[in-house]
Amino acid sequence: MAEETIYSKIIRGEIESEILYQDDLVTAFVDINPRAPKHFLIIPNKLIPTINDIEIEDEIALGRMFTVARKLAKEAGIDEDGYRLIVNCNAHGGQEIYHIHMHLVGGRPLGPMLLS
Ligand code: AMP
C-alpha cells in the first residue's frame, strides 16, 4: 500500500488549500509555491504514487485531468496565449510528492521546455 501524502489531506479537505475544482475522480488546487503567475496542480483522487504505477483502470481519471486542465486554463484566461502541463516522475524527473500530479503553469512566456 502506497503511503499517503499531503495531497490526500487536501483532497479530503483536512488541510487548507485553494481548491479550484473537485469531482469524484480528480481535484485541482493552487500550487503553494507558484513558479509562474498561474500555477495549478491537478491530481487523481486515487493515490497513484508515480506514472510507473498507472493501471489501465486509471485511464478515465487521467483523461479527466486533461479536461480539467483545459477548463482551468480557460477560466484563468491563459488558454489562448498558452501554458504548459508537466508531470514529473521519480528522482530524475524532480518528483517531490509521490501522488501523481499534473502541473499547469502559465501566465508568462515559459521559454524552453525545462523549467529552472
Ligand atoms: P513535484 O516536484 O512535481 O513533486 O511538485 C510538487 C509540488 O507540490 C510543488 O510545486 C509544491 O510547491 C507543491 N506543494 C507542496 N505542498 C503543497 C500544498 N500544501 N499545497 C499546494 N501545493 C503544494
Describe this structure in words.
It contains three helices and five strands, in the order H-E-E-E-H-E-H-E. It is of the alpha+beta class. It has one domain (6-106): HIT family, subunit A. The chain has a five-stranded antiparallel beta sheet. A hairpin with a 3-residue loop joins strand 1 and strand 2. Bound molecules: adenosine monophosphate. The site of adenosine monophosphate has 12 residues, from loops.
In short:
Helices cover 23% and strands 22% of the residues. By secondary structure, the protein is an alpha+beta fold.
Task: Give the topology, please.
Blueprint lengths: L5 H6 L7 E4 L3 E5 L7 E7 L14 H17 L7 E4 L3 H4 L8 E5 L10
Antiparallel strand pairs: 1-2, 2-3, 3-5, 4-5
This protein binds adenosine monophosphate.
How helix-rich are the residues, as a percent range? Answer: 10-25%
End-to-end CA span: 33 Å
Which CATH C-level class is it? Alpha Beta
In CATH terms, what is the fold-level topology? HIT family, subunit A
CATH architecture name: 2-Layer Sandwich
Shape: globular
Category by helix and strand content = alpha+beta
- The beta-strand count equals 5
Q: What value does the Rg take, in angstroms?
A: 14 Å
Q: How many structurally independent domains?
A: 1
Widest sheet, order of strands: 1-2-3-5-4
> Could you tell me which ligands this complex binds, including any ions or cofactors?
adenosine monophosphate
- Characterize the largest beta sheet: strand count, sense, and whether it forms a barrel: 5 strands, antiparallel
Low-confidence stretches: none
The CATH superfamily is: HIT-like
SSE string, helix = H, strand = E? HEEEHEHE
Domain HIT: 6-115
GO molecular function, one term: catalytic activity
Active site: 101
InterPro entries: Histidine_triad_CS, Histidine_triad_HIT, HIT-like, HIT-like_sf
